[in-house]
Amino acid sequence: MRDISCIQCHECALQIDVPSLEVAQKAICPRCGFLLKASRKNALERVFVFAFSALVFLTMSLFFEFLSFTRNGLENSFTLLDSLMILMQKNYHLLALIEMITVFLIPCTILVVLMYLSFYLLKGHYPPQGWRLLRVVFVLLPWSMVEIFLIGALVSIIKILSMADISLGLSFYCFTLFSLFMTIVVLHLDKHQFIQLLANTHSTQAATEQALEQLVPEEHEVIHNKYSIQSTWALLITAIVVYIPANTLPIMTTRLLGQDEPSTILGGVIVLWEMGSFPIAIIIFIASIVIPIGKIIILAWLNYTVQKPQYGLTIARIKSYRIAEFIGRWSMIDVFVVIVLVSMIQLGDTMSIFPGEAIIAFCGVVVLTMLAAMSFDSTLIWSAPQPTITTDENKDDSDHSRRS
After folding, report:
1. What is the mean pLDDT of each run of 10 residues along the chain (404 residues)?
2. Phi, psi of 19 (to 5 degrees)
3. CA-CA distance, 82 to 68, in Å (whole number)?
4. What is the pTM of this model?
């Protein structure tokens, strides 16, 4: 069976022989600095326990009051399940689907699969369909947005504190603990540890070899996405087109005493700033304006540099790629702010909030930029042909190596 202690770096495709790690040790790629592997004490047991705890708190968060809103003697409260029902009753089915998938279904699937894999591996047995399920976990991870929804709820609370009294229900605290344990599970998740354990427990060598070919390429292989550059350009251009209506159309409409007041993303930021809610205005401005534009610019620059090979700035480019990959999800804060406000503030003509036309376009921008980051092949940064430089014979070897 193939030795999988040789790890191919996910970001630069360098092949590295990684020795067995002691507890608290990490293996870092010597070329690009990517974290290859980390050894944590009782990591598998912790993944199982924390995943189970997260599922318990998720279940508890569904049936109790999440938030309540009181203004001029009128009161409204909702649970997380009510939030989905309200969105569907108001015919905002796509928003309900986004909340259900990214906040509940995907995180729940990840936790259940990790518990399943951990349970078998702790007993020293191979879990049926283990290889496929491990791939599913890492495909779904970027689309889990539990912590972003929680931040969106907090922003919503602060945003309307000046207009009404807000009370936190038991569900809010349960959901906070769910988000905390979900984060801990992800921090303890080591892909290569699971790969090694699955390989050690798999009884069929041929099937193991085939699975390893998909998860960990052979030493001589550096697999590039043939259409990576074209796909990334197509997604970025589409995101730019969709970004226009996302910022020019209203993202939210507030009905106050029968009068509708639509607001765009930038308009909402200006209103918050004028009201003195500086931290919230800054958060919304960064998440909804700076991050999407920044991500599009970074990915466009990276894609151009691999299309027209640039000889240098490799470390700067790989760090820029990591930033773009990390920040993309956080633009969803504004979407979740609207979802929470729509669910909470439904007092008829006295005061109600409705999502605007821009909300779907803005979701499209977030999804398209995330897909663009995923389609970009970061190994192309390191695989561009190097220029041939003629050096004098009296140059020392280190100088020649540095320039060639």
Report:
1. 62 76 77 77 88 95 87 79 87 90 95 94 89 92 93 86 81 95 90 82 59 48 66 94 92 79 85 79 87 92 84 80 86 89 77 85 92 88 52 40 38
2. -75, 170
3. 12
4. 0.82
